[in-house]
Write a structure and sequence with these properties.
Alpha/beta knot, 9 strands, four-stranded antiparallel beta sheet, alpha/beta, three-stranded parallel beta sheet, 2 domains, 164 residues
């Protein structure tokens, strides 16, 4: 849970504010039914930039029934959840014109000249499985260097590069 909370914190919170141009979707794949939780910085309210607060919101959502795939139910202002996997997220991004990207040591160096609307797929503490790699085959691949970094650090670096 702490890995997810750090990722949400890094993706959305800046000093004295929230990134209103960023959304993070976390995928909870450990239960019987895959669930996605989306935090939308443009409308997010009532969450503080600490792991305990963010984790509490995620835990409260996990107690609710999983909505059908593609149906986003609001849990609180700026936080919603839906059934589904990374596949559904990639399909939704494609419909919205979001360029799907994956961070990969073998990818091109990420530069600030990137697309306006980019979605980044990050793994948890484990490398992507073969099935996940197949799913991500059509994504643009970008590298942040030759070292395997923690997800929240990658998010901070991506924001730093794209903020230029």
């Amino acid at each position: 849970m702490d890995v997810l909370a750090r990722a949400v914190n890094t993706a959305l919170f800046i000093s004295h504010g929230i990134r209103n141009d960023s959304t993070i979707t976390i995928h909870l794949m450990g239960g019987d039914i895959p669930r996605r939780v989306k935090f939308d910085g443009n409308i997010l309210r009532g969450i503080h930039p600490d792991e305990r607060s963010i984790s509490g919101h995620i835990r409260s959502i996990m107690k609710r029934p999983v909505p059908p795939i593609g149906i986003w139910q609001e849990a609180s202002t700026g936080v919603s959840h839906s059934g589904g996997t990374v596949r559904e997220t990639l399909i939704e991004w494609s419909r919205k014109g979001v360029v799907s990207c994956v961070l990969d040591v073998e990818g091109d160096r990420l530069r600030s000249e990137g697309e306006n609307s980019m979605g980044f797929i990050l793994s948890d503490h484990l490398p992507f499985t073969g099935e996940e790699k197949d799913l991500l085959e059509g994504c643009q691949k970008f590298s942040l260097g030759s070292k395997w970094l923690q997800g929240h650090v990658c998010i901070a670096i991506v924001h730093h590069i794209l903020d230029d």
